Amino acid sequence: MARADSAWSALFSGASAAWILLPNIAPRLIVIATIEVASAILMEAALSFLGLGVQPLRPRWGLMISEAKSHMFFSFRLIAIPGTAPAILVFAINLAGDGLRDMITPERS
After folding, report:
1. Membrane-spanning residues where (predicted)?
2. Global pTM value
């Protein structure tokens, strides 16, 4: 209730609605943006693995894994490297978003 009262008092003192709302929604927007970026990366890798992604002449992680299936037992690194790269990238994006959220709102962490 105290936050609502402070929002009303800031609004009546002349602050714009964006100035009041931005600090309250910025952490949530950062979390949503990092989840969506990570989801898009994984979706692109999955679609290119199935052959539904971008054109085959462009190097994509899913396409690399799909083409290396026949060599899986002879050269495991052909699947391991492009398979772990999206996972590491998604983990790094989530850590960066979490760190940015904690930096913006240190009292909530």
Report:
1. 6-22, 29-54, 74-96
2. 0.76
